Amino acid sequence: MDDVEVRELRYFRAVAEELNFSRAAERLGMAQPPLSRAIRLLERRLGVQLFERTSRHVSLTPAGNVLFTESAKALDAVTAAVRRTRRAAQRTPALVVTAKPGVATDLLRRIADAHPDPVEVRVSGFGEQTGMLRDGRADVAVLGCQGQPQHGLDVEVLFSEPRVAALPSGHELAGRAALACADFAGQPTPCWPLSSAADRAYWSGQDVTGGPVTPGPVVHDSAQLLETVALGQAIALLPASVAELRSRDDVVYRPVIDATPYTLALAWPAGARDPRIARFVRTAVEVSEALPRPGAVPAG
Description:
By secondary structure, the protein is α/β, with parallel strands linked by helices. It has helices at residues 6-18, 21-28, 32-46, 62-88, 103-114, 129-134, 197-204, 206-209, 222-230, 240-245, 275-290; strands at 51-53, 58-60, 95-99, 119-123, 140-144, 153-161, 163-168, 189-191, 215-218, 236-239, 251-255, 262-269. The chain has three domains: 6-84, Arc Repressor Mutant, subunit A (Orthogonal Bundle), CATH 1.10.10.10; 90-160 and 262-290, D-Maltodextrin-Binding Protein, domain 2 (3-Layer(aba) Sandwich), CATH 3.40.190; 163-255, 3-Layer(aba) Sandwich (D-Maltodextrin-Binding Protein, domain 2).
C-alpha cells in the first residue's frame, strides 16, 4: 500500500464512479488499455480484487467499496495540502473563509473588517462548506451546526438562537400565537440540495417528533425558500434572525416552542496549526458576542 500513487487512486475513482472502463478512460483523457493495466497493477499491489468484471458489467467488490470511501479522504487531503501550500507562498497570503449567503455572510463581513490579517470571503451554497474545508478551498467555514458531529473538523460555537415557522399568510396555522413541531406533521417543507436525512429532519422539526418528513420543493437560498412559502407550497423553520431581516406581507412568522435552536459556528480542519486561524476565531468570538441576537440562547 506504501507504493500506491495518487494518480492510481484517481484512475480507480474514475472507474468506480463510471462503472465503465471506456467512459472512465474518456473522462481521464487516456486510452482504455493503459487504464485497465493501471487498475490491475493497483489490485496486485493491494493484494485484493477491486472490481467484478464481465463483458457487460463492472461493479465494485467489498474491498473496492472500502477503497472508494477511503480514497476520497486521501485525495481531498492531498488536494488540500497543495492548495494551502500554494496560498502560503503568496506575498500576502489571505485566510480563505467561506459561508452561505444570508446572516452568516453578514456576520463574516463584520469579522473580516475587525480581523488584523487579510481575509478572502468566498460565498458557498448549502452543504458545501465542509467539503471546501476538506479539499483546501477554504481554511475556515461559518456553518449551521445542529449538534451533529463534524468529523475531522474543530468547531467553535458563536451563538444559538430560536427558530420560527414561516407560513403563508392565509395558512390554517397562521392564526395561532405559537406552534409546536408536532403541528408540522404532514406539512411539506423545502428541501436543500445535498441535505442529509438528519438535515431534513432538523429543518422540518421532525428531529423533535421523530415523524416522517414530507418533502416540498427544492430550494437553493433563503429568498427562493420564502417565495415557496408565500406561494403556499411549503412551510419552513427558520432562524429568528432571518425572519427579522426578511419581513414581507405574504409570509407570517410564528414562534415554535420546542424547535431545536439554530446554532452558528466556525469550523476548520482538526489539528490545524496556522496561527491566523486562531486569531480569526478569537476575533469572531469577540465580534459575535458584541452583536445583539433576536431571542439569543447562550451557546453553552
